Prior knowledge:
This protein is an alpha/beta fold. The chain is about 45% helix and about 15% strand.
Amino acid sequence: MSVTVYDNTYSFRQNELATKGIQHGQHKMSAEQAKQFEASPFMAKARQQEDYTSTLTGERDKTRKKTDKDFHPTDDDWTASKAFDYDKGVSYYIVLGVDEYATLEEVKKAYKKLSLLYHPDKTAGLSKEEKEEKAAIFIELKNAYLVLGDQATRRQYDKDRDFVTAGTEVNGYMKRKERAPFDATEVMKKIQEHYKPPGKEIDVEVLCKLEKFFYGGAKQLTRNRVVIQDFQESLQPKHFRLDVPKGADEPWECKTKGGDMHHDTQADTLRFIVASKPHKVLERRNSDLIVKKEVLLRPDAHLQPFLNTEVNTVAGRTILLWGQNPLYSQAASAAVLNVSIAGEALDEGRLRFQAKVSRPSGDETAVVTVRTTYTKITFFVGVSTVATLQELSLAVQDVLELPADDSLVKLTRDSSEPFESNEELLGNDRSVLLDGKVLSLCEVPMSLRRARELLGAVAAFAGAESFGLALGKCEKSAGSMEHGRLLRELWEPACPSALLCGYEPSLEGLRAAVQRALWLLREEPDAGVLQRRFAELGFVAKQPQTAKMPRRRKLPRPDVESFLIRNLLGPEKWGAEEQWPDPGSESEPEDETERSRVQKEAEEESRDFENFLRHGGSGSAHSSDRWNRRLGVAFGAAAHPLMQKRASRRALLTPHCNLELEPLYGNGESLQLFTKPSCFLHFYSNIRHLKTRCSEPGLLEPTPVFAVAICCPTGAKRQGCEEWRRLRHELLPMLKQGIFMLLAPARALLPQPLLAAPAFSADVSYRVSGDVKVARLDEKDIEEEKQSVDEAAADLTQESEGEEENNAEIIRLAKKRVEEARGAPCDFEDLEDLDELEEAAEAVRSELREQRLRRRAAREVWQRETRMQCQQKSGRVEAFSTAAVSADHKADPPELWKRLAVEAFKRGDYYLAQLYYSKEAACHGQFAQEEQQDEPTPSTGSSNHLLSVSLSNRSLCLVRLHHLEAALEDAKKAASLRPDWGRAWGRVGAASTPGSPEAREAWRKAVELDPTAQHTQGLEESCRKGGVGQGARSLKELGIEAFRSREWGKAIALFTEALAAVPPPPERKEGDSSVLRDDHGLMRCILFSNRSAAFAWAKIFEAAALDAERAVAEGQTYPKAYCRLGLALLGCGKHEQAYVAFAEALRSDPKNQSSIKGRQACLAMVPRWTSQAAFSRRWRFLRDAERPLGTSKVFTLPELHFDRGSNEAWAHGIHATKFLDDILIVPGNIGSSFRAIERALTTLRTKFRRVFYLPGNHEMWLQNIEIQKFPDSLCKLWTILELCDKLGIDVAPAAISRGVYVVPLFSWYNAEFDVADPYPDPQLEHDRYAKWPMDAQHQVWRFMLAMNRAALEKPYHGTVITFSHFVPRSELPVSKEYALQKAAGCAELDEQLREARSTCHVYGHSSKKFGKVIDEVAYINAPHSGGGLEEPLTCVFNGKELCSEIIGVH
């Protein structure tokens, strides 16, 4: 493809004549042919049209002479030059609001009156959009006045319009409707109304659901108003639509004209004050949403290691919470969880709620007894006191471990009366009946998973410190009645765990449940451990009674009872109560042997329980002793009476934990589920906030917790409420089981299982991680391993013995840390200071303990690796003993210290990081000394290199700790070891005194050696604080000399010093709107531009682009700034933005060769789609490739023209949730102004799942104010594509479901599309508002087709839907008026769509509705006709196959 620069002297006709060799003489007519042509019907019509035009013009002149005495027409008016190059299709009379025969004075008067409203001087205080709109109207007013205010131009304009009118009547075709940017008549009516005094401002309070503020939506209401027509008053209803923005403040106000009309004043203004109705679940506080009631966890939640619950918020939204339980092993259930989730409230707010463990014995939780009607068994469930029947059914399903099916659980009241609905509250009902005939239930099931949950909860409760102390008190009263009472009080908090298995929440029920769980797990691998552990607590495995289904036998029915049953006159439920036995059957009585056996087992169980109450738990005496030894006695500062008093007060505090959850993924992306209706999953976690330490008394450490929000916007609507309830009932159980296991951070919380067999052979070693290797040892290795273990044990003993000796050092470090944090000396006699000192001391102890463990682990790893290397080299194990006693520095590998230092630096622990860097530097320093004793080798330089890196990193840590002297010393050592390393000199500059000559010189060397943004910023700040010593101009000249000698680093340093010598720009004071004078703006612009060029030559394009943007932001007319911005953006891979920069440079300097070449390079690179923006578009190609068929429909919407008010109202009226699963194809012409395009795409994006869009010819127009914003139409095209990327609009090919693709094809028209006359006509000005940097007739369409080349290379298969704006085939219907067929399409486009294996092609531009299959490709055009708010959409793909269906938008 060849792209040429636009040349205004180019002649299309001459080009055709020259290239095709057409001779003028070949087309000369003979006299006979000329006579026949003159007599042809075509010439007869033309003469008739000219005659009729002369008649219309003469009549117009006669009428104007009568109405305007100053009108004197002459023949010279037809040859006079035009005052303005008018458009004959625009009615300038409508623009000014005057009659066609208005006098010149009337035209001037109308223009002046309208100019007072729209003149740019009259727009002060308006918004930017309003100023642009009024400026565009003023330009149209001025153009109209230039045409109608000049007599000659007005007569030529009227004659051209009369020629069009004569052509419509003579030739018989329909006259084109006159266009006008706006109607001045309507404007004048508004002006007259405006001159009336303003009406009243009426406040109208409107209440809507809270979901309107959460999701955003329209609130429609009707209000009667007084209307005055022909001086008659009447009441008429008026419909209002209030579009409540998502996350709007409350109350939200909206003002609109539409109140009662008055004779002497303007119509009243209605101020709608929209507020939310009281919500049954939530309460709004600013942008936060607060759950009104506390979320009740399961009764044994504090005994479970993992937390699992759900919370309902707004309609259509449910949150699942899962993670490590922060309340685990907390005393009783008094702890409270304060959960806040960012992104689940309004705007920047948070969803907040409190969760705590439910108490079955209190007023918050009720224990409901459930009895079956057929099998006569009884079990217990725990629910909230305000629970509904549906919640009770879910609790029963959970206990019985049934699938989520409403038909299996049929509950009635104990009196056999049915409940009214699933939403009915239980009230005082504490006993219900369950239909057991459907379930055939003979006992409450207990799975192995449920048994382990129960035993885990009981074991966690028994492992608490308070339990061990209380158990010791119980043992003292063993064998007495007091022992039973104390034992019940001890186990009371754990009794709610029995509800998990349907047992009564008492000690008897808990004991029976635990015994049954132990019996079920008797064959598990850890059965022996479990039985020994629970035997200490008094629980032993015991086989439960064998459950049997009761056998029923039929009885003969009496005649009276049979009559009652046949006529439905008997009881509703036979057998529901003992007084209503089922006359049709009875339970077979048990035989005497069975009855005696059951009675004997019950007596034995009673005796065992009595023995448990007297002596239970006595076997666990060593447990209480262990707890006493573990607790010990307070020592040190903790033994102070004030500290013990403080500890006792802390024990009375209610423990609580704050969980702050953020979106798990930074961009807040959601996962869509292909359900009906559609729903989305949003993921949250608090893993980023776990590093903060708790300092508040009673505050528990947060644990990793995850949340998944299931969002269904359709469920918030009245129509979709029932579907969401059904979907939620089916979806939540499945999500609870597996959704969190799909997250890798969540899976990492689960305990890792051990392998049943070794994972390695006897002779092969394997590597666990990067630095740890495990191998099988021989006998000698085992002996050495035992010896090393003994030495490690001795080291541990020595360290533990020295811990108390180091308490003074720990307290000293803790005091120093507290004083550094406060910035002032502290009085540690105060209790508050003692608390803070205690926390700091604990932090120091943990850090020292961590250091010891890491040093020991590093030493062991190195010893193992050294042993393996010695065995491989010499085969003798004795070599290891020689290597193991080497220097202590070699025992610690430097790579390990560096890794630990990097981790500490990332988490902000600079003190620990500098300690690790010191260890690394010691290792490198020792190696360097040993290498220097021998002859110098290349490895000596590598050791110095590593040592300099360690010293430089340690210097940075010391700078962060404000130890500048030590940091400067390390930085200088690093710079002396590597004088050519810029980062070392940067460390010297950072550690030196700011503004000192030493700092300035160090920063200068750093920039010269490594010109990064950090080094240039440091040099500029140092020069501003300490001064430069030279003028900006002299430094600029030195920088230019360095630039010419290709010393890029030196040039950057000199330009940076020059920038520091230039005064900063003046700051505007608040409230000051005057123009600030900046005498140094041009100098800053030049320096930034020059430094940008130096950065670009140094291949540092990001910094070059930043400097060029700063140069442009100075607001100076300097074309080189735009040129260098384009060069930097081109280097960054941003070809579209680079083109805009080069076009701006050419606007200021059209002959700038660098800008011309840069623009040509951009035009060559853009069709390759290799820019960063193009890469992100290609990434969306396979996003929906695995979406099932039948879940998405494809609609088309050509020729929307959103800038027309009726079409905008139609777009806003599309149903908010009806098309959220579907695709919309928009083949261009949605608006001509960029503002209209943005509004249209924003509106359509909220209505559909994906929107595919391509700009049309109207989008390429540059009218009025946009000419100043966009240099040419390509710049507007790149800006539109950038807007699409921002809004999530697709402009590149993508799969929309499995085997279905949508492929956009860029296009433009060419004259060859008109087969009858395939030559351009210079007299026709199609799209004259479009400005191109190339030949509009021969190059634009080639450039557009070249942009499709990359899209055609993808492997399409199945159903491929292509679309373009222009018509791809000449036989498709187009309008032939005004030679529009020359600007209708491009025949070469059809070749590309067939190369893409298209099965359906959607196009626009033509206003002809059409649909037909041609050569196995369906061509469809369904333009938007603007037929009102009820106009439907056209569906071209119904999810499974191509179609052509009409679907309403409401």
